[in-house]
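Re-running the complex after MR caught last week's input typo. The corrected sequence lines follow. Everything else is unchanged.
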Amino acid sequence: MTEPALLLADEPTGNLDSRTSIEIMALFQELNDQGITVLVVTHEPDVARYARRVVEMRDGHIVRDARDSRPGPRN
Amino acid sequence: MSATSRCSNARCSPKSTFNTAEYAYDVALANLKSAQVTLEMRTAESRLHQYLRPIDGVVVERDVDVGRTVAASLSAPQLFLIANDLSQMQILASVDESDIGAIHEGQSARFTVQAYPNETFTGSVKQVRLQSKTTENVVNYTVVVSVSNASGKLLPGMTATIDFLTGSAKDVLLGAQRRTALRPTEEMREQMRKSAARDGEIRRRNRESGERGSKRRRCGSTRSCGRSSTQPNDALVSRRPGQACCRARSNRAYGWATHRSEKRESQGGYADHHWGDADVTHHRSIESLPAATAADVTATAGRLLKVREPMAGEVIRVEGVTKVYRMGQNEVHALRGIDLKVESGEMLAVMGASGSGKSTLMNLLGCLDAPTSGEYFLDGVRVNGLGSNTLADLRNQKLGFIFQGFNLLARTTALENVELPLLYDRTGRRPRYTCTRGGGVGASRSGGTGRPSAERALGRSAATCRHRPRTRDRASAAPGR
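Corrected-run output:
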């Protein structure tokens, strides 16, 4: 059905408890493995850890753009 | 007779009135005496006793000043708020019902407070209160966590974010999670293509030599996979990894299905993770597929690998984008020149405090808002200057949204929310009604609102509704379909 090229999520775990947050982020990872590009906007470092690339913004500028090429989870 | 008349003439009272007055006087005198005795007694007592109201602790709040009259008659006034011992504090944590089962007294807990973001405090569960509170359809219980505050850093009323330790293990081997989700290298793919072609060849040969039926035999082609089976040879061939994956794709079993596909199906040992994700119903449908030719199998495998590979190209290219909002006389510069490229297949997190412009950026990327200046290309399409209908189509076909509040439609079931983007779709794709967990109005489904929202973003009612069921589905209490 709809096969979005890009999945945008604005604070997807904002109102969820931690276990459901993990489920949702695992869902994103799984979709990403299917080839769907996923962009998550968040203020929680825990959530950002699930991503392979983290762009940090401050006052309308991009101040950091870090990619993780390691195979394991970051941290 | 004469005396009576004399008395009435002098207007004197009868004797009974006099007696009454005299009696009242005596009573009053006795009362006075009694009160005097009580006074003497109390005075003597007060000399012997000392009245104290011992209060120990730290004054957190003082509501009266010295010299002020305290009126105690109306209600008990609060004079001071005194904390008994600030070195022993407690946290009242709200824990929702899906997690409360894992919490018990004596359990240790870790928490952070916003005042010290880099410090982790510890405590232990003292009490799980039985009274529930329902906020926004979520049932919460209060858990009291006792905390030692010897350092005095924790202050009354702070907000704590708390983690309860539900389990721990020592001396275990840790491995990176992503190591189990392997992406095949070019070498592995080549091996797979070869093996797919070889299987087709073997099957054709078998067919030519009339070797069919269900006799127990070792599959001739597969010294590498080394399996044996009592099934017809055709069925075996049709369960090559290439097709197994193909069926996973065609059925859109996106990995929620059980990992029940067996090792004997895997090729060279590496394919388990990828091909092992279809469930048993799909499995059967595959077995009944007619046998394909070698070329077909190879082509399927090839097509499949193409899908697995991240598509080349940029999904997002943003060049020098600025966004200025006008609020009355003031200009708010939400974005001050953003350059961003996102390749297809990336997983990207945009971090930032509130006011950093991240939500503005997301609105621009989602074609919900237009930049003040700069260029934005979405999947190769220049977004600037497109009409609103074109933008709506672009959003429908290229973008999936998951919002913070989830923006699910109220008074609509979860299933209808998932279907919604398909109704607006002009390419004629229609939903399949295979959702097993529909029902529940809007956000009332268990597991929060995130799932229907994610499902809607993908428009995949068939695949994504097959989530692992949770302990209790709140949808059962909602008006069902």
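None of the earlier attempt is carried over here. The two ends of chain A are 36 Å apart (CA to CA). The beta strands of chain A are 6-10, 37-42, 53-58, 61-67.
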